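User
Please review the sequence:
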Amino acid sequence: MRIVTALAALLISAPAWAQVPAPAPMPLPTPQPPAAAPQPQVAPQPEKSRAEREEEAALDRREKTDNLLDRLALTRDGREAKLVEAMIWKQWIESGSPTGDLLLQYGATALNESDVEKAKGVLDALVETTPDFAEGWNKRATLNYYAGYYDNALSDVNAALALEPRHFAALSGRGLVLEAMNRKAEALESYRLALAVYPAMEGLKDKVRDLSLEVLGQPI
């Protein structure tokens, strides 16, 4: 009887024992990424000199100006041409040095105020300190033209054109100088060159037509 009672008690307790959860499996180790390969050391670039920076800036201005002049030669619409012209002048008035820019500003102001003596002193200093700056020569040519020094004006404008052959203001200005010197056939050629660079320049077509009639007896 006691044996039967003990077996019955064991059977009754069996389900409770069966509900005990099995032990959780051991977690697998997380794989670690491979160690990064050492990066080669890049040597720092040496800082560019002032001369190198100025040369790069000059080349950048040259490229922009050439592209704009190409566009100007293809533009027939007056309004668009004026916008392109303004962008070209923005490049042309940069001398590449703060001193040159300041002298150009002072010289242009004195010229606009008809202060010939002051303008001459400033523009003389400009072409001496920045001889590779086309607009400096062009401004002094303008001064000499208005002062009646035509030989000096022609020399200066030719210097400007040697640096910037497509300087339409210098080309048309040279035409004015040559006309004043009664060299009208040469003046006509200079106006034509200016017209090829800037076909939409205001008044230039009429100038070429009128001078062609006078020099050649017929319009272009």
